[in-house]
Amino acid sequence: MGKFYTITQDSFYIYVTEDDQLISPKDMPPLLGLYEAKHPWKWANKIVIMNRLPEETLQQAATILEIHDYERRNADEQSLEHYFVTQDQAYLPPKEPPLLRTLRKLEEAFKDGRLSEGVYRQQKEILERELVGQKADFDIFTATTERCYQRLNVELRPGLKLVYVDIDQLRSDVCTEMGISEDDFDDLFRVMLHKFVGKMEVCGAPPTMPSPTTIRSHAIREERGLELDGKLYYYIAIFEPLKGDEKN
To answer: Based on C-alpha coordinates, what's the Rg of the chain?
Structure first.
């Protein structure tokens, strides 16, 4: 279960998961004007989306939500819009690791003027040293990779998806979201390929007709790609959800 909010530019997302109940409009101060006609908003069972709110309103609404035990969460607009339509938690980011949450709160405290620059920088260095010493949780990595893949797996036209996505772009998205290095991504990604045999495929170029049994030789490219058993691969396809019946 969880209660969260996300601010993206001038949009405000309030959402819950599992059995938690979304905060009622009557529990928010009317002076904030969150549900007035001049600010477009839409409501679903687990999420409410508000647009074009003034900065002061956003900050005050965030404070009220935190009083009600809501937690700020980083998430992209596309994933939250998908959650609005589907109520499927697979579109939401995994729970923020404690150290990354602490770093985010440190950044917020510095921006709010509650810390001097010297204290801020020293604390940030301490936290970053701890972060470098930690290995990413494999289950969180798997969930994040699968969700980022689905986000990149866009429809070329109704009913036809890309299926094969660029590994370099996937790596960039996952590393940014999890705060891990590219080398850590490659190490964990190789473990995923071993665990989920038959559910994933890497190839050198996207096949014209996607098939789990198709393996293509790689082309000469400037991108990093992924080295596996002495070969370079540039595209990834996921054919089944990455859970259950995985290879040990």
So the answer is: 21
Distance, CA of 110 to CA of 52 (rounded, Å): 26
Q: Where do the domains of the chain lie? A: 2-90, 98-132, 138-238
Q: Structure tokens of 128?
A: 């970053």
> In 10-94, which residue ranges form alpha helices assigned H by DSSP?
55-67, 77-86
Other C-beta atoms lying within 10 Å of the C-beta of residue 104: 14
Indicate if the alpha-carbon torsion angle 216, 185, 105, 98 is positive or negative.
positive
Question: 146: closest CA among 238, 210, 244?
Answer: 238
pLDDT at 218: 38
* Site of tokens 């991108």: 223
Distance CA 222, CA 219 (A): 10
Question: Of 5, 22, 19, which is closest to residue 80 (Cα–Cα)?
Answer: 5
Residue 140: which H helix or E strand, with range?
helix 138-152
pLDDT at position 210 is 45
What's the CA gap between 94 and 147, in Å, rounded?
A: 9
Cα–Cα distance for residue pair 33/15, rounded to 1 Å: 18
Low-confidence ranges of the chain (pLDDT < 50): 209-221, 245-248
Tell me which fold the domain 2-90 belongs to.
Answer: Alpha-Beta Plaits (3.30.70)
Query: Exposed (0-12), middle (13-18) or buried (19+): which is 31, by Cβ within 10 Å?
Result: exposed
- Of residues 197, 156, 192, 195, the one with CA closest to residue 171: 192
